[in-house]
Structures are given as structure tokens and as C-alpha cells.
Amino acid sequence: MTLIAITRAVSPNIGQCELTHFERQRIDVERARSQHHQYTAALAALGCQVIQLPAEPTLPDSVFVEDTAVVLDEVAIITRPGADSRKPETTSIAQALKPYRKLCTIEAPGTVDGGDVLRIGKRLYVGLSSRSNRAAVEQMAALLKPFDYTVQGVAVNGFLHLKSAVTQVAEQTLLINPAWVDAALFGDMKIIEIDPTESYAANTLLIGETIIYPTSYPRTRQRLEQQGIPVCAVEATELIKAEGAVTCCSLIFQG
């Protein structure tokens, strides 16, 4: 089985991205492209077949393909992003996924960003955030019931997406910001806490047994390495300015 990674090139207008919790800063587009290239190279080095879609000049946030779909072994759910400016992003993603999965869609009034969806085995935790609502959680639960998934809403306040606060770093281990989400929600999973000085350090992308992780959070990286987690470090400073992170920039699934 081939591990597929769908990515999209950085929009030349990424500086006009949606922002919810960050103040707008100047984004160096060429540096963002260089960092994104480093990211896609890391995906390839870890065994992914990278499918890069072309940049979308009229869709500033479109590099963050994770928000447009939730891809499971049995089906792909095309999301309905919470920001109106991002809703057109799903069209080309659906076309890219169509050869690999049966497609389902979230319908109004449901809204959900893929960044709010954390999958652990057959359970999906979905952030109830400014971008994702309970109507979408209910639709996802109904769509996935035939495949024995459980879908659980999780309150999100003060940060953008659930995966800003918690991601998986090993089969039975999560990296978590305990100030933002309660570790007790995740049962008997082992927990590694971020360094408290690095609030946004909980977002990692697990590929096999290695995580792709931003260089911006060295103290938390040290904690991860001390726990035996292999780290592939990438620069992501420009994408972070757009409230992005390493999970945001790809859709990973078995082809």
C-alpha cells in the first residue's frame, strides 16, 4: 500500500489569509514556498507519494488542504469549511480524492475544518470551534456509523482548531497543551505535555513512527526526543503566521 500525501502549492495571496487569533503580519511568500518545499520533501523522504496541486491565487488559505477533507480507510468526507472564503477550496480536493475513495459531503448548516478532527483508531474527536459546529459532528456520526466509528465533539475556546491543542505522536501517545484541552478526554493514551512557554507547540504530523515538527518550538521538541519520538524538523515560520501548522498542509492516507 502506498502512502499518499495530497498537498497544494502556496497561494501568491497567502498574505490575505483568514485570521482568528493572530494579528496580521507580513508573510514572505517566497520564503513560505521554500518552507513548503522543505515540508513536501520531508513527506517524500518519509515514504509518501506526494501529489501537489497547483496554487490557487484567488484562495489565500488553500495551502492548508487538511481543512477540506477527512480521509479515512473506508471513505472521504468533503468538509464545509467554517470560513466562507474557504468553501471553494473543496472542489479541487474532491476531484483529487475521487480516484481513491468514495466521497461524502457535509451539508449546511454543518461546518467543519479538518484541523478540528483528531482521529485515534476508530474514534474521531471533533473540535467545536469558531469553524466547526455540532451540526457537522452529527452528520459525521451518521455518515460513519456504518463503519463503526465513534464521533465526539470537544469544546474549543481561545485557539483555532482542536489539533492546535493535541495531536498524535506515536501509536499510544499524544502531544497536548493541557491549558487548552483536558487530557482525560483521551482515556488511557500516554500524554506528553508541551513546554508551557510554547503555546502552539502541540501540532505534529505523524508519518510511520516519525513526526514532522516545526523548528519554532525547540523546548517541546526536546521533550519529544527525550521520550524517544523520532523528529523530522522543518521550518514553518511563514505558514505559522497564517495560523497554519504541519498537519494543515497535507492530506495523508493509504492509496
Rg over alpha carbons? 17 Å
Work out the number of β strands: 15
Report helical residue fraction. Answer: 10-25%
How would you state the average pLDDT, rounded?
97
In percent terms, what proportion of residues is strand?
A: 25-35%
Shape: globular
- CATH class (first level) name: Alpha Beta
Task: Kindly name the structural category.
Answer: alpha/beta
User: CATH architecture, please?
Assistant: 5-stranded Propeller
**Main beta-sheet strand count, sense and barrel state:** 3 strands, mixed
Number of helices: 5
CATH superfamily: L-arginine/glycine Amidinotransferase, Chain A
How many domains would you count in the coordinates?
1
Termini Cα gap: 6 Å
Strand order of the largest sheet: 2-1-15
Q: H/E series, N to C?
A: EHEEEHEEEHEEEEEEHEHE
Uncertain stretches: none
3D structure, described in words:
By secondary structure, the chain is an alpha/beta fold. It has a single domain (3-254), classed as L-arginine/glycine Amidinotransferase, Chain A, CATH 3.75.10. Helix content is 20%, strand content 26%. The protein is built from 5 helices and 15 strands. Helix 4 (218-226) links the parallel strand 13 (210-214) and strand 14 (231-234). The protein is globular, with a radius of gyration of 17 Å.
Keywords:
alpha/beta, three-stranded mixed β-sheet, globular, 26% strand, L-arginine/glycine Amidinotransferase, Chain A, 15 strands, 255 residues
How would you sum up this structure in a few lines?
The protein has 255 residues and is an alpha/beta fold. The protein has helices at residues 29-45, 90-97, 134-144, 218-226, 237-241; strands spanning 3-8, 48-53, 69-71, 76-78, 103-105, 117-120, 123-128, 150-155, 166-170, 173-176, 190-193, 205-207, 210-214, 231-234, 251-254. A three-stranded mixed β-sheet has the order 2-1-15, covered by helices on one side. The chain has a three-stranded mixed β-sheet with strand order 3-4-5, with helices on one face. Strands 6-7-8 form a three-stranded mixed β-sheet, covered by helices on one side.
